[in-house]
Amino acid sequence: MACAMFRLAHISDPHLGPLPKISLRELASKRITGYVNWQRNRRKQLFGDTLENLLASLRDAAPDHVAITGDLVNLATRTEIEAARVWLETGFEPQNATLVPGNHDAYVPGALGRAKAAWQPWLVSDTHASETPLFPSYRRRGPVAIIGISSANATLPFVATGDFGKKQARAASKLLDQAREDGLFRVVMIHHPPVRGAAKWHKRLRGIGHFTKMLKLHGAELVLHGHTHLDTLHHLHGRDGDVPVVGIASASHGPGGNTPPAGYNLFDIDGEPGKWRILHRRMRMTGQGPDFAEAQEGLIGSGAKIS
Predict the structure, then answer these.
(1) What's the total number of domains in the chain?
(2) pTM of the full predicted structure?
(3) pLDDT class for 113, splitting at 50, 70, 90?
């Protein structure tokens, strides 16, 4: 039986600012490189009320659920992590939004653990047990299964790689099979793009082979990622056909610069197992003002081939 239409929104990389005051002790780490990058580049690119305007447009679109693919913060200080928790509480009910962490959320050793504790309501599986890992996470919302993968880890200075290992791949594979047996539309969320060549070498996902094998053997209907701050659409071979892999610009990026201005994805999902239909709309900031407009629309996934 065909399901009622489900609208999924996707945002990523808000890099909430401005930076709080940072002590010399906090800067005596990889944070010094991120601090310099913020002062030279990122603070100029995060334009005024861009994020607030994006969220207003997003609310008008009335999605059933919002997927947030990481990098809420910049240097993962305790103050930033707490501020991000307040931002999440203010804008997103945990029932209606799912988060996976990004590399900036795990910027230095210990930061990811603090972020997980602070942001747990938006990370946790529907039936999470305290003794089990947070990831991969599994949430069912209507006809949709949302499987969250964490590629976040602390890295050396000038490196922003992510990791997807065999253990997480095995666990996610079981969740994909479970969702398929339940007749659900399967969405996989991950911060780093699981596509070879989609990110520079020092920003790549380590373990892409595990990810591509997982999709080939177990399938999915849609993969969402962030990290690159680019509006992208790739495809990976899945169990039942090609799987669209969709990235998005930073939710806070103003006009100008080397990457697209802020935007968000909308996916209208309907149909039934084997006959899913995904209408993808890419919404983008139109200029210096508060408006967001449709920059792209089209069917993606297997439904794009159904006449």
Answers:
(1) 1
(2) 0.90
(3) very high
